[in-house]
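wait is this the right file?? whatever heres the structure
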């Protein structure tokens, strides 16, 4: 990256990009600089997107705080109801699966008797 920070870089700061090497800026390769500009624009766009996401996360956290402060007891009750219902659903689902597996095993044993 030697020439990246030299006068050939035309005042640009050093970057970790491999394209930002001595052949790029010291030779004033126009196509290389265009690709570099596109990468910087893309990086800028990603930073703006990250800021938008962070803003939404902060907003969501504040909304959660408000809900808990104003509806904490009701949310705890609702969470309990939903959690218990989900637990029952999975319990029945697993019992049904176990019943199916038991049925399959019985069928396999039945048909294995006729192989012998």
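ok assuming it is, sequence goes like this
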């Amino acid at each position: 990256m030697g020439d990246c920070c030299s006068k050939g870089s035309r005042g640009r700061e050093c970057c970790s990009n491999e394209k930002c090497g001595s052949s790029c800026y010291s030779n004033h390769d126009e196509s290389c600089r265009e690709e570099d500009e596109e990468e910087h624009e893309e990086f800028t766009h990603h930073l703006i997107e990250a800021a938008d996401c962070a803003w939404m996360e902060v907003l969501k956290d504040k909304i959660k705080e408000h809900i808990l402060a104003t509806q904490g007891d009701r949310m705890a009750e609702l969470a309990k109801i939903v959690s218990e219902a989900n637990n029952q659903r999975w319990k029945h689902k697993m019992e049904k699966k176990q019943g199916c597996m038991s049925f399959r095993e019985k069928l396999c044993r039945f048909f294995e008797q006729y192989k012998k």
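The two ends are 76 Å apart (CA to CA). so i think its the right one actually
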